[in-house]
Design goal:
Length: 276
């Protein structure tokens, strides 16, 4: 089964996508399953994971409703206010819904890089662990040092790093990013998504601009802990789904068939607990 482990849907009239402004042009419109279906068919992708794009419970419920009526959506990574006093109760309620596989706080938008270490999060994360929910870590390079502490604080939490922690490819940020990712990968419980890299590159990016970053993720995590994601429709800001897929296939071409099968589906199925 080929899986896109990271995509979004949104409906602007819902009004909770504060980051999604008219200045973003190509993606400032509604995106639905009908928009994505022909793209998946073109690339022979069988299933997807929808990931939250707004910090609201209502958007999580919106995605769960889409998953209920969309055959190719096999999982939803939602959102909850992990600091709220009633977070455990809300997480427990959400975890009863079909298709919810994880939660993602929007760490990249929180000014305090140490936010993830606050004691107020502990009851919510304990409830995530009890409900077998995964934690999608939306990080940027400044978060990598506190994230290593976060890993030690929650040794039983299943975690995947989104977008390779968004290395600063456009400003040649490999040297600052690579050692931290290698260290994080030493924790064999941590997975990583090969996704979102093209929006961190220059607007005229070429495949070779991405190659060293993808090679490093493969060397650090191995195919068994890497999963491919499109980050559609955000990827439309940097060349689109087809071009990102073409670049990914090129960068992973030296791997064996089984290794590529893991990255393009098997790892995501195992991490998110999807049916074979």
């Amino acid at each position: 089964m080929r899986i896109d482990s990271h995509q979004h849907f949104w409906q602007l009239s819902r009004g909770d996508y504060s980051w999604l402004t008219p200045e973003l042009g190509l993606i400032h419109r509604d995106f639905s399953a009908d928009d994505l279906r022909p793209i998946l068919q073109r690339h022979q992708i069988d299933a997807t994971i929808i990931v939250q794009a707004a910090p609201t419970i209502s958007e999580t419920e919106f995605m769960l409703d889409i998953a209920r009526r969309t055959d190719f959506v096999k999982g939803v990574v939602g959102w909850a206010d992990l600091e709220a006093k009633d977070a455990p109760e809300k997480i427990d309620r959400l975890s009863q819904r079909d298709h919810l596989v994880g939660l993602r706080p929007m760490i990249q938008d929180i000014p305090d890089p140490d936010w993830m270490l606050r004691p107020a999060l502990e009851p919510a994360i304990a409830e995530m662990e009890r409900g077998s929910l995964r934690f999608d870590a939306l990080l940027k390079p400044p978060h990598l040092a506190p994230f290593r502490k976060f890993l030690r604080k929650y040794p039983n939490l299943p975690i995947v790093v989104d977008h390779g922690a968004k290395p600063e490819i456009r400003s040649e940020g490999f040297a600052a990013w690579a050692p931290a990712m290698r260290e994080i990968a030493r924790d064999e419980r941590v997975f990583c998504k090969i996704s979102g890299l093209v929006t961190e590159a220059k607007s005229d990016w070429q495949t070779d601009d991405l190659r060293s970053y993808i090679d490093h993720l493969v060397a650090s995590f191995g195919p068994g802990r890497l999963m491919w994601g499109s980050d559609w429709p955000v990827v439309n800001l940097a060349g689109g789904y087809d071009r990102w897929m073409e670049a990914s296939v090129a960068c992973l071409s030296a791997l064996s068939g089984d290794e590529r099968a893991a990255i393009f589906g098997g790892t995501a199925a195992r991490f998110y607990g999807l049916p074979a």
